[in-house]
Amino acid sequence: MNRLKHRGPDWSGLYQHGDSYLAHQRLAIVDPASGDQPLFNEDKSVAVTVNGEIYNHEELRKKLVNHKFRTGSDCDVIAHLYEEYGEDFVDMLDGIFSFVLLDTRDNSFIVARDAIGVTSLYIGWGLDGSVWISSEMKGLNDDCEHFETFPPGHLYTSKSRGFRRWYNPPWFSESIPSVPYDPLVLRRAFENAVIKRLMTDVPFGVLLSGGLDSSLVASITARYLAGTKAAKQWGSQLHSFCVGLEGSPDLKAAKEVADYLGTVHHEFHFTVQDGIDAIEDVIYHIETYDVTTIRASTPMFLMSRKIKSLGVKMVISGEGSDEIFGGYLYFHKAPNKEELHRETCHKIKALHQYDCLRANKATSAWGLEARVPFLDKEFINVAMSIDPESKMIKKDQGRIEKWILRKAFDDEERPYLPKHILYRQKEQFSDGVGYSWIDGLKAHAAKNVTDKMMLNASYIFPHNTPTTKEAYYYRMIFERFFPQNSARLTVPGGASVACSTAKAVEWDVSWKNNLDPSGRAALGVHLSAYDAEAPLISNVPSKVIDSIPRMVEVPGVAIHT
Predict the structure, then answer these.
(1) CB-count exposure of residue 104 (10 Å: 0-12, 13-18, 19+)
(2) What whole-number distance in Å separates Cα of residue 366 and Cα of residue 377?
(3) 317 in a known ligand binding site
(4) Are strands 46-54 and 39-40 parallel, antiparallel or unpaired?
(5) Does this model's pTM top 0.70?
(6) What is the pLDDT of residues 491-521, one digit of tens each?
(7) Per UniProt, where does ATP bind (predicted)?
(8) Domains in the chain and their CATH numbers?
(9) Nearest one of 274, 452, 367, 349 to 51, comparing CA atoms
(10) Is 74 assigned to a binding site?
(11) Separation CA 239–CA 315 (nearest Å)
(12) Is 103 annotated as ligand-binding?
């Protein structure tokens, strides 16, 4: 339990029944006074430990009129739903969650993870026949012969000894939808997604980077906060948070949005050395060696510590928008709406390995919870049912990336954001501030990884072999913390350009020779999409490519990498 105490510093709970153990570290957000875990049904024959938030718990309680609840916790409904509906109740939950439910009547258990994998979860098996479940890999890696990421949208039962996918939305089949784009329908769906995440009994705020996604989240939160229970407890003025290198242009953009919305804005600065000093802690907590995830996680990790020090325990963030709406710059090269839609489906399905992993663990490292309204189940269903022709980027029609989201919130009478923010493109260049972050990381890695070491990389790391010194450096640290083969297999790899899947690399023949998962190849994509005279990335000298920064739009993080 001590290995995961950072995730829940408010309470430690332990329950034993025979050879089954439930352990829980609680971060109290709803009903902090009486919602300690494990949670039980009336006669305590069913016990549950859960990490997450059930946003429709009040509605679900109304369906359980014959049940008596011990606490006001939103997660208290789980044991009672199981009594009424068996394992089929999981799809009734609207929220983010990972839970283990123990039925002491037959000593069986079920495990489930939320639809997209916003909460982290792992499963492992011991040589003695034991099954282990943990929110983080470090909770079971030393005790299991084999372990792996628990798949999102699935449940595992001890009776079947196998997984079953409970989350089966229409878009999952990747068939091409045909619902006409209605901006008001999309707007209302996202507003609802944000509003339901205002359920809290503790101080909270929003992460604000000045980019489109986090700015929309902040705008909607600020608009609807008044009158909520949270506002009555903590005041109706919203707090916003941003971190960046001194002088970052996005710090300025975030401040502009905060001033427009009237938030209490907290701007945190960090230096390149601060980031470098935190790398080992970041890799330990995030549990990955993926280069772009580590780069983006570092400032978020540093910011989360400062936010928690202010007494804030929950933040609302903007992850998921680029995956749903085709917001990455390589989508300029999508050959048709069918390919674009399939790529967005693949991206959403992989979120638990990248942005969800970062958002959950970078915040949980300091006992802070991140909520992500773009990954709301109902909102995803609405957004992914739209005819993908509306998501196609078309310069001649003035449609830039995520045009349908921008248009949905383009309200002349009651503007959500200033026009230039609402239609602000992703930044691709920095004024030198961004270069220092990546250059600093590269220089630090070069001091620790020699050319001779790189020559043997494929023998030392045959799986997902690092191809740069930076990647090699991160891999060394990861392997020191997590030396098991199971651990290295939890991290994805494969060909990518500008954060694409391997399939999307086929969209442009020039990309095959310039694979760059960090998004640096997006420069050529971006230029060629808007300027017919712009050179393709394949015509740019490799040394120049290596110095091109990527703008990582991490909510609340203003930094070019």
Answers:
(1) middle
(2) 27
(3) yes
(4) antiparallel
(5) yes
(6) 998 766 567 777 777 787 776 666 655 555 5
(7) 207, 243, 317-318
(8) 2-167 (3.60.20.10), 171-278+295-349+360-435 (3.40.50.620)
(9) 367
(10) yes
(11) 9
(12) no
